[in-house]
Specification:
Blueprint (H helix, E strand, L loop, with lengths): L22 E3 L6 E3 L20 E3 L3 H9 L8 H10 L17 H16 L6 H18 L14 E6 L35 E6 L4 E6 L6 H4 L5
This protein binds zinc ion (3 copies).
Length: about 230
């Protein structure tokens, strides 16, 4: 029996590109995971769900085409049809853009020709090359309008060192003994100054700068009291 074109389901081959993906590298499973609007990783059954990615990844042609291949509209969208043939060839399953040896459309074009050479002993541009060129045009248009999703820089907690000296601490410039830091907090300006010896020294290392404070025994902030003091 011969099927005529009128018996096929109604379809169109209009190309509908997917938006460029916002992907980040997960610090635990090392996979490329979509990033939410707040810069955190979408849930993917991993301890890092909802955490910040190790690095936000560029939306390369390979990553975009892979996202396109995830759509289920192969019958109506020829970009999905093309992407599916690249990422899900019949004999094996490719699951991620990291499994392919190309990242740009140009590199993929070279790979397609290498395959042709291997199969036929010659290579010339065919329908698949044409489909690739069309996909790349869509990609380039999306890339020109692309704004990376703002990712929050990972906040590192400062490293805190707390030291106790029963006779008090000399100021870094050796001019005098340090007084209690409560006296230098503007909100306390109207209070009588604290004259108790500042026996605690707290050094907070923020990576790019240090903050040093001195406290009498009663004014030492509670969060530093629990730190091992020596
Ligand atoms: Zn993960
Ligand atoms: Zn070609
Ligand atoms: Zn004090």
């Amino acid at each position: 029996m011969t099927a005529t074109i009128t018996t096929w389901p109604a379809h169109t081959t209009d190309p509908t590109p997917v938006p460029l993906p916002h992907l980040g590298l997960c610090g635990d499973c090392d996979d490329e995971i979509r990033i939410r609007v707040d810069g955190r990783l979408y849930a993917h059954g991993c301890p890092e769900d909802g955490r910040l990615p190790v690095v936000a990844l560029k939306p390369t042609f390979a990553r975009w085409l892979w996202t396109q291949s995830k759509r289920r509209d192969d019958y109506t969208n020829r970009l999905t049809l093309f992407a599916g043939r690249i990422f899900r060839p019949c004999t094996r399953t490719v699951t991620s853009p990291r499994d392919v040896a190309w990242s740009t459309a140009e590199e993929l074009h070279g790979q397609l020709h290498l395959k042709q050479l291997a199969w036929r002993g010659s290579a010339e541009c065919d329908a698949q090359c044409k489909a690739l060129a069309e996909a790349d045009q869509h990609y380039q248009r999306l890339l020109a309008a692309y704004t990376p999703r703002p990712t929050k820089p990972a906040q590192r907690k400062p490293i805190v060192r707390v030291r106790h000296n029963p006779t008090g601490w000399v100021l870094p410039d050796y001019t005098d003994l340090a007084d209690c830091t409560t006296n230098h907090i503007p909100a306390n300006a109207s209070q009588p100054p604290c004259t108790a010896p500042a026996v605690w020294k707290v050094v907070e290392d923020h990576g790019l700068h240090l903050t040093i404070s001195f406290w009498c025994d009663s004014h030492l902030p509670a969060e530093h009291r629990t730190t091992d003091a020596a």
